[in-house]
Specification:
single chain, three-stranded antiparallel beta sheet, 5 helices, DUF742, DUF742 domain-containing protein, WH_DNA-bd_sf
Length: 127
């Protein structure tokens, strides 16, 4: 028998599938997804979902019944958050998902105004 190499190059190493999953794409700058961004399959996306990669198809199955957060999608698929964000950007560009961005945090409350309102309520209704 010919000598076989001790270590063969493994084409399914942990880094290769992630690159293959995203087709070498990076996250477009206009598609920033926070952990709490909600995604849902678009109503007309069922037919187009059949031609997707297995990972994108898995994401579509997860969000078919309602909104899930980006973090939940990453947790269910066992994919890194960055990869899930790239998949979601591709799905959103193709019109297959609907995205609901989180509501921005409210501006800081003026403590003097809140204190004045509280004092007014105490004076009016007694405390």
């Amino acid at each position: 028998m010919p000598d076989e190499p001790e270590h063969e190059l493994e084409l399914t190493s942990p880094l290769v599938p992630l690159f293959v999953i995203t087709n070498g794409r990076a996250l477009p700058p206009d598609h920033e997804y926070e952990h709490t961004t909600l995604v849902m399959a678009a109503p007309e996306s069922a037919a187009a979902a059949r031609t997707l990669s297995p990972e994108a198809g898995q994401v579509m199955e997860l969000v078919a019944d309602g909104f899930l957060s980006v973090a939940e999608v990453a947790g269910h698929t066992h994919l890194p958050l960055g990869i899930v964000r790239i998949l979601l950007a591709q799905l959103e560009e193709d019109g297959l998902i609907l995205v609901r961005r989180p509501i921005p945090r409210a501006e800081r409350v003026d403590r003097e105004l809140v204190s004045a309102v509280l004092d007014g309520l105490k004076n009016r209704f007694g405390a």
